[in-house]
Amino acid sequence: MKNDNVLKNTESFSIELLLLTYPLLLLSGDIAISPHYLILILSVLAGIGIYFLFNTFSYTALIGLLISLFLSMPLFIIGIPVTPTILVWTYIFWRIHTNFNSERPARWNFMAVNTIVFTVFYLITTIYLLQPEKTEFNQTHVILFIATTILYIVLRYIIVMITGKWIPNFQFRAVHKMFGSVLGIGVVTFVTVYFFIESFRSAIINVFIMLFGNVFKKTASLLPEVELPNQAIPEDEPLEEVLIETPTSSDQINLGLYITIIAIALAIIFMIMILKKRKITIDTIKMPSYSLQPFGLNKRKIIKNQDINLLSTTNVVRVAYQEFEKDAELAKSSRLAGETVKEWFQRMGWEQDNQLIMTYNKVRYGSLTIPEEESRQFVATLNKIKINNFNKNV
Q1: How many other C-beta atoms are found inside a 10 Å radius of the C-beta of residue 170?
Q2: Residue 342 burial (CB < 10 Å; 0-12/13-18/19+)?
Q3: Which of 93, 69, 85, 67 is nearest to 27 (CA)?
Q4: Where does residue 391 fall: left (phi above 0), alpha (psi -120 to 50 degrees), or beta otherwise?
Q5: Rounded to an integer, what distance in angstroms lies between the CA atom of residue 114 and that of residue 381?
Q6: Sequence-ordered list of residues with C-beta below 8 angstroms from that of 241, at least 6 positions apart, any chain
Q7: Cα(114)–Cα(337) distance, rounded to whole angstroms?
Q8: pLDDT, tens digit, 9 for 90 and up, residues 254-277
Q9: How many whole angstroms separate alpha carbon 106 and alpha carbon 98?
Q10: pTM score of the predicted model
């Protein structure tokens, strides 16, 4: 494993592909292969392939474009129109570029996002589709929601088991119990809702009718009867011929072409906006600026030279730490996401040097200056850890 970030980014990208199942369901009218089920398979296969790919090669925008094209082309082959395929391609490129173009991207809360997307498309089918289609689509929506949730839980379980091998005293049995409990509760909930909720609702209605039905009948019998006036039914009159202009095939072709051109233009603009974003790194530190202006030209020059030296010492600390993290990744001892430097050193059993952590915190989180001797000691301590654990010098 090259580093833990590749594994976590792959997981994030795979589960984000699952969100395409809901809009693709609306496009599955006359298509022989269901695109919403196809995307479930593609997300799993893409996760496996991308994990091994980016453990060997570094991510580039060109690779991201090719992968997104490779994943969206099967949808076009099975019969999805050009415009939705372009939108799917743009979405896939957006998510793969966001996940792999930064070392620690802001990941989505999948359960929350999945529930929101499911609810939105469920309401769309409920409002705008006819009753026969509405029932069928909503049942499939529920199945997709259950399938994506189970895939997410299983994927989380696999990721935790893989990363647990690198954590000392990791409780694998506790993870098995937790996974089994979550999956068991989900199965019990699904069986209860699917098989018993309708019977429970019918039982409540029957009890309600039995208890209050006679009351409603007596109340209705006391109300006066209202006679409706008889209205003469008009004789059938000949219907006038109404000419309905239907669009010609050429008009339909032109409209589809215009929509496709607009979709391509928007996709290109969106991709350019994505590519213009600079890569996010772990330590993006902007040093504070000072405006100390002592009297005298000579003193001003001395202060300026001192500022340059102090800035160089903080840069030495930052560069040394960044190189240390890269060497740790190559030695399969990288820092986990969300883990502090102190927690990382404790987990790996490295030398517990409080001065090392204090120096790092000064540069990483504070605006304190670092003396030259302190920066040298920081580099020397990291060098010692490398020699003892990585077998590599600075």
Answers
A1: 13
A2: middle
A3: 85
A4: left
A5: 46
A6: none
A7: 23
A8: 666 666 677 777 777 777 777 776
A9: 9
A10: 0.56
Which pLDDT band holds residue 229 (cuts at 50, 70, 90)?
A: low
Tens-place pLDDT, residues 18-55: 999 999 988 887 788 889 999 999 999 999 999 889 88
Output the six-digit token pair for 162: 């893989």
**pLDDT per position as a tens digit, 149-197:** 888 988 888 888 887 777 767 777 887 888 888 878 877 877 776 677 6
Name residue 136's amino acid.
E
**Amino acid present at 133:** E
Distance CA 202, CA 196 (A): 10
Between CA 48 and CA 87 the distance in angstroms is 24
Tell me the residue type at 112.
Answer: A
How far, in Å, CA of 375 to CA of 317, rounded? 6
User: With pLDDT > 70 as the criterion, what percentage of the chain qualifies?
Assistant: 71
**Token pair 């026969």 in the structure block, residue:** 132
Q: CA 319, 325, 327, 330 torsion: positive or negative?
A: negative
The strand ranges marked E within 182-257 are none
Q: Do 321 and 283 touch, CB atoms closer than 8 A?
A: yes
Spatial separation of the C-alpha atoms in residues 44 and 393, rounded to whole Å: 40
For residue 102, what are the β-bridge partners?
Answer: 280
